[in-house]
TrEMBL record:
<feature type="domain" description="ABC transmembrane type-1">
    <location>
        <begin position="15"/>
        <end position="209"/>
    </location>
</feature>
<keyword id="KW-0813">Transport</keyword>
<keyword id="KW-0472">Membrane</keyword>
<keyword id="KW-0812">Transmembrane</keyword>
<dbReference type="InterPro" id="IPR051322">
    <property type="entry name" value="AA_ABC_Transporter_Permease"/>
</dbReference>
<feature type="transmembrane region" description="Helical">
    <location>
        <begin position="20"/>
        <end position="42"/>
    </location>
</feature>
<dbReference type="Pfam" id="PF00528">
    <property type="entry name" value="BPD_transp_1"/>
</dbReference>
<feature type="transmembrane region" description="Helical">
    <location>
        <begin position="147"/>
        <end position="170"/>
    </location>
</feature>
<dbReference type="GO" id="GO:0048473">
    <property type="term" value="P:D-methionine transmembrane transport"/>
</dbReference>
<feature type="transmembrane region" description="Helical">
    <location>
        <begin position="89"/>
        <end position="110"/>
    </location>
</feature>
<keyword id="KW-1003">Cell membrane</keyword>
<feature type="transmembrane region" description="Helical">
    <location>
        <begin position="190"/>
        <end position="213"/>
    </location>
</feature>
<comment type="similarity">
    <text>Belongs to the binding-protein-dependent transport system permease family. CysTW subfamily.</text>
</comment>
<keyword id="KW-1133">Transmembrane helix</keyword>
<protein>
    <submittedName>
        <fullName>Methionine ABC transporter permease</fullName>
    </submittedName>
</protein>
<feature type="transmembrane region" description="Helical">
    <location>
        <begin position="63"/>
        <end position="83"/>
    </location>
</feature>
<dbReference type="InterPro" id="IPR000515">
    <property type="entry name" value="MetI-like"/>
</dbReference>
């Protein structure tokens, strides 16, 4: 216990770094992955703006990035990370790779959420003369809110886990602390403390996300 108390400043700094990495990557996922998911849905077969070519290109890119094991993606993006941030060390640098991985991840979840919206509701909106923007905002995104919140929760939880992997290549955060002290220095108590911290973080995010999705679900 004394060991953990003496490490408290480092632990707090690691938590801060993990939160920075997750916040940046999730922001990128929502800003870029959200529209990507909507485009994937709209351009798919029998939808409002069907475009097989565009849809195939986007699907290919999404599948390509998602097929990379994250640690390989992290290493392969080191040149891009250096170009964007000027360094490959630290939470901001690790956020580049995390963001690249988060955008298609969340985009696919958004597409799947929109597919759950009943076709009849969309056709009813079209029959009233609603334009595409209105259908996206007032029909698709409104009806899919519970599923979108669940998808966002899954994305946050997944990228808390990915941020721990980023620690393996100098990204910082709780994963980095666990590797440096728990693995290399055999300080088991620090390793256990890091695992407990990650568990608490994941449970907290999952509980809030599940509760919010449940409140938004009209079927409840």
């Amino acid at each position: 216990m004394n060991n953990i108390i003496s490490m408290l400043p480092e632990i707090l700094k690691a938590i801060e770094q993990t939160i920075i990495m997750v916040l940046i990557s999730i922001s990128a996922a929502v800003i870029f992955g959200g529209p990507l998911g909507i485009l994937l849905y709209l351009t798919s077969e029998n939808n409002l703006h069907e475009s097989r070519t565009l849809n195939r290109i986007m699907n290919y890119l999404v599948n390509l990035i998602r097929s990379f094991p994250f640690i390989i993606l992290l290493l392969s993006l080191i040149p891009l990370t250096r170009l964007v941030t000027g360094t490959t060390i630290g939470p901001i640098a690790a956020s580049v790779s995390l963001s690249v991985a988060a955008i298609p991840f969340f985009g696919r979840l958004v597409e799947q959420s929109l597919r759950e919206v009943p076709r009849g509701i969309i056709e009813a909106a079209i029959s009233t003369g609603a334009n595409t923007w209105f259908i996206i905002r007032r029909v698709l995104l409104t009806e899919a809110r519970p599923s979108l919140v669940s998808g966002l929760t899954v994305t946050i939880v997944s990228f808390i886990s990915y941020s721990a992997m980023a620690g393996a290549v100098g990204g910082g955060g709780v994963g980095d602390l666990a590797i440096r002290y728990g693995y290399y220095r055999f300080q088991t108590d620090i390793m256990v403390a890091c695992i407990v911290l990650l568990l608490i973080l994941v449970q907290l995010v999952q509980s809030v996300g599940t509760s919010l999705a449940s409140r938004l679900d009209k079927r409840n």
